[in-house]
Amino acid sequence: MPTGTDRPAPRRVRLDADGPVLVEGPVEIELPDGTTVSSDRFMVALCVCRRSRRYPFCDTSHRRKPRRRPAGD
């Protein structure tokens, strides 16, 4: 059983209401189909709007077209 000193340092994740999710890297991302992609960058921007041509990585496509707000907001 691991002790408290054996645990890896936590990753910091930053959420931005109108942009990508920023994760301190390096990271390995598991996609819904089970495949994995990785990045060894110090900060990784993950797309949440699904407009990126580089999904799951953000390419700033969200800046070109405003996100549609759900009805009633």
Automatic annotation (TrEMBL):
Q: Which UniProt keywords apply?
A: 2Fe-2S, Iron, Iron-sulfur, Metal-binding
Q: Does the keyword Transcription regulation apply?
A: no
For this record, an example GO cellular component is: cytoplasm
Keyword field contains Cell division:
no
Quote one Gene Ontology molecular function term.
Answer: 2 iron, 2 sulfur cluster binding
Query: Which InterPro entries does this entry report, sorted A to Z?
Result: FeS-contain_CDGSH-typ (IPR018967), MitoNEET_CISD (IPR042216)
Q: Which residues form the Iron-binding zinc finger CDGSH type domain?
A: 24-68
Protein name in UniProt: CDGSH iron-sulfur domain-containing protein
